[in-house]
Amino acid sequence: MVAAPSTPPPVVEVNNLRIRYGKEVALQLDELSVVPNEIFGIIGPAGSGRTSFLKAVNRMDLFDRSMDVEGSIRFRGRDVRTWKNVYSLRRRIGVVFPLPVGLPLSVYDNVALAPRLSGVRAKSELNDIVERCLRRAALWDEVKDRLSSLGSLLSGGQQQRLTIARGLSQDPDLLMLDEFSIAVDPVTTMRIEDVLKELKQELTIILVTNLVQQARRLADRTAFFLGGRCIEIGATDAIFSGEVKDRRTTDYILGRFG
Amino acid sequence: MPPLGSLSQDLDRRDFDWYADKLVEILVFAGGFSAIILILGIFFFITREGLGFVFSSLDIVEFFTSPRWRPTSELNATYGAFALMAGTASITGMAMLIAVPFSIGAAVYIAEFAGPRSRETLKVLVELLAAIPSVVWGFIGLTLMNSLIIEVFDVPVGLNILNAGLILGLMAAPIMTTIAEDALKAVPDHYREAAEAMGATKWQVTRRVVIPAAKKGLAAAILLGVGRGFGETMAVLMASGHAINIPGSIFDSVRALTATIAAELGETAVGSEHYRALFTLGIFLFTITFVINLTADIIVRGTRKR
Amino acid sequence: MSDTGGGGSLFAATARDLDNRKKQARYRGVFLGMTLLLILPVFLILAVLISRGGPILSLGFLFTYPSSGMTAGGVFPALLGTIFLVTAALVFSVPLGVAAALYLSEYAADNWLTRLINLAIINLAGVPSIVHALFGVGAFVLFFGFGTSILAASLTLAVMTLPVVIVSTRESLQAVPRAFREASWSMGATRWQTIRHIVLPNSVSGILTGVILEVSRTAGETAPIMFTGAAFFLPFLPQSVYDQTMALSLHLFVISTQVPGVPDALPYGVALLLISIVLIMNSASIALRMVLRSRKKW
Q: What is the pTM of this model?
């Protein structure tokens, strides 16, 4: 699925991006684009700048004074920094960060928060959203009888899935997942992976993962980040069959470092 | 997926929530900024009332060196604040003599020796000590402490430096204890562990490792205690004897700067020379406590950076 | 541990160790003694006040006017006046203080302006109470023309206790982990929505603790209200915020220093009443804080 002239315009388009924390450059990205309805995998060892990238797309740098973003990230054809309403932008872009955060609200309110903030009031509609998102995050069966208990007191794995359910509840155009399966058991991970494959019909997904095989299973295209640089971008099949520009990609995929 | 046109509009339109957030930001900023306005306001208004005196009648040399505070003299009113400064200084000095060792000792015990349960209890009790109102302390000085001092030391008057200093020491101790304890607690545990691993006892660790590492915070605690002492009004007014005096012993009655304002402001006519002179004392007090607080803050900031 | 004791097992205490341990116990004892000596006065004072002032405290004492030139009767107008003053002071200081704390905790960037605001708060807390009184006279009584009134006195009290509200509120706000805010922001919640839905609901009881503490501080203050709105004696209750009022703290000062022939028990009773109000408020605040700490929501 390499971008061809006939394909629709990319959802995310990056040019000459440089993210710094003080003097330290966390990520330097010359060019990258994510097209609609694909799962775009990003692999690489910790500290390779993947999380910073997601933060910059979602404009979380706005509240992090130490973070400096230069260059351009286009969402829907326009630099994310030029959209006047950063909150609307974030509502369109769901992010699931690696640390599970159950908000100190009831499980129900955790998932209903985003729809409520964007103006959904009808009880039945909220119920539908909550159930749908919890099912998709493979959490419904475990919490359906205690939707009123505190989300922040669920187990780590449950909170992780609750975080995913929240990300889905925004009904985003772009969903960015950062190591979502870090505290989730393999069976549940598989269930969520199936959901992601289905979701691809409706939205675009950027999947940051340190499980090389997860990228192989899910991603249409994969990028390999290393030390704040993008070493490789290409169709997942190609990369995993060894068609790489840089040897380090193969080394990483085969588990020789990282 | 929604049509692109409407989506872009959505991202480019500042909606109600956006404006609500901005409005709140402006409101709470006004709240934060009010602290600056207020501190400037305090300086402005006390200067406004006192400045006329500073420029017309104040004799700086007399103010700082003469012990004659005779604002009500018909013929020749004099405004020498030296005795008042000596009074404030002697009471504060007496108070620190008591409060410094005791509050640092208490801080060491609470931070280094006490178990978690007794630490909580002691901190609560220190907090209660801090809660006793100034006027109640003054009343205690006026009654209990007064008769106690007369009895024990066989002196004619018990309202003196010793009395006010003891009271003030107890009043300043809680804040000093709390800040000193914070400073000790801020010393990283691995310092202690490293020293203990070498076989040092708790006390050796405290004396040779923890206290030196926390010395800036401890200095700030003492400085803030001094600031409290300088500024305390009611207790000092009631327990010091309120007599203009360059003290020769701790059994002499003295009069403090703050107490002078409290005792005389009610009897002066607004705008009179005496009234303005009292505001000038206020400017002096404000300046001193400002410098003390600033210094303490700089010291504490220094420790935090390290 | 160096082996200076000679012979014996490896773990046997050396003479030096024993000496150290003895020293250790001694130092521990000294510091404990200092701590206890420091807090002993609280109990001594309470005991004396209760024994001398306790007998006079009664419902009648609380609800009758002073009589015979304040040498007899109760404290009703002073008690009510303190309640008025504290309430009015809260009305001004709580909204302003909470706003300032919200700004510092939720909006402020780490820049020179924020440092300046923090510095102002520290200094506001360090200004002597009598200087606050002078400010109250210069600003509220004279410049704004409120006269010596409940309004002027409570504004002065509010300015004086503002740092207490700001500091305690900011502490409760910052006890809410940043991760919650980031989770909320990442979903497109504005900062205000995050404050309203996540931060405030989880810090409101902590803020309340600080407010109760402020009540206790305010109730005991004397110097700031002496010249701004508290009266030595008034035979009637204030009718509006532009009237003067009596106050318990000033009443204690007046009857113990300015009025001749006051029977001993009277000022002790007033002091006991004042300290009880303050300590009850303080204990309530401490108790609330402990309950909160034991009921973790995350």
A: 0.90
Interface of C with A in 180-219 (CB under 8 A): 180-191, 193, 197-198, 201-202
List the chains bordering chain C where 3 or more Cβ pairs fall under 8 Å: A, B
Domain that holds residue A184: 12-99+172-253
A to B CB pairs, distance under 8 Å: 36
Q: Which of C247, C228, C271, C257 is nearest to C87 (CA)?
A: C247
Q: Give CA–CA dist C173/B259, Å, rounded.
A: 38
State the Cα–Cα distance between residues C221 and C282, nearest whole angstrom.
Answer: 15
Q: Which two tokens stand for residue C273?
A: 């009443």
Q: Is A21 left (phi over 0), alpha (psi -120 to 50) or beta?
A: beta
C6: burial class by Cβ within 10 Å (0-12, 13-18, 19+)? exposed
- Give how far A226 is from chain C: nearest CA, Å: 25
With H, G, I as helix, E, B as strand and everything else as coil, classify residue B244.
coil
Instruction: Give contacts of A 154-213 with B, CB under 8 A.
Output: 173, 202-203
pLDDT digits (tens, 9 = 90+) for C195-225: 999 999 999 988 998 899 899 989 999 999 9
Q: Residues of B with CB below 8 A from A89's CB?
A: 11
Strand A12-21 with A221-226, pairing: unpaired
pLDDT tens for each residue of chain B, 306 residues long: 444 445 566 788 888 999 999 999 999 999 999 999 999 999 999 999 988 777 777 778 888 888 889 888 877 888 889 999 999 999 999 999 999 999 999 999 999 898 889 998 999 999 899 999 999 999 999 999 999 999 999 999 999 999 999 999 999 999 999 999 999 998 988 888 888 888 788 888 888 889 999 988 999 999 999 998 999 999 999 999 989 989 989 999 999 999 999 999 988 988 888 999 999 999 999 999 999 999 988 888 765 544
- Which are the contacts of C198, defined by CB distance < 8 A and separation ≥ 6? A103, A104, A105, C176, C180, C181, C184, C189
Q: Which CATH number fits domain B83-269+288-305: 3.30.70.330, 1.10.3720.10, 3.40.50.720, 1.10.10.10?
A: 1.10.3720.10
Residues of B in contact with A202 (CB under 8 A): 1
Subunits adjacent to chain A (3 or more Cβ pairs under 8 Å): B, C
Query: Do the domain assignments include residue A258?
Result: no
Strand order in the sheet with A174-178: A78-79, A67-75, A12-21, A24-34, A229-235, A221-226, A39-43, A204-208, A174-178, A93-96
Beta strand pairing status for A67-75 and A78-79?
antiparallel
Residue A165 lies in a domain: no
When CB atoms are compared, the residue of A78, A84, A117 closest to B13 is A84
Q: Which residues of C fall within a CB distance of 8 Å from B27?
A: 99
Return d(Cα A180, Cα A171) in angstroms, integer. Answer: 18
Contacts of residue A170, Cβ cutoff 8 Å, sequence gap at least 6: A91, A92, A94, A114, A115, A118, C187, C188
